[in-house]
Design brief:
This protein is mostly helical. It is built from 4 helices and no strands. The two termini are about 20 Å apart.
Length: about 70
């Protein structure tokens, strides 16, 4: 996951992973969907549309994939 975020230019170390997409991290919805798509492909885990709509930060992305992988 860290590598994918790094490739997209989003650092997720320390408190930066709690920064909000759109307001604190200047990206649009398509950029975030690109990150999610890349992670789904690399991890082999598909998120539901409901999960995608609730993602507001890199930390939300990490939690969503972690929860999906455990389930």
């Amino acid at each position: 996951m860290i590598a994918v975020f790094r490739e997209f230019g989003i650092p997720i170390t320390g408190s930066r992973k709690q920064m909000r997409f759109y307001s604190e991290i200047p990206v649009d919805k398509f950029y975030v969907e690109g990150i999610l798509f890349e992670l789904e492909c690399r991890l082999g885990v598909l998120l539901d549309d409901e999960d995608n709509q609730q993602i507001d930060s890199p930390l939300d992305v990490i939690r969503s994939f972690k929860d999906k992988d455990i389930a």
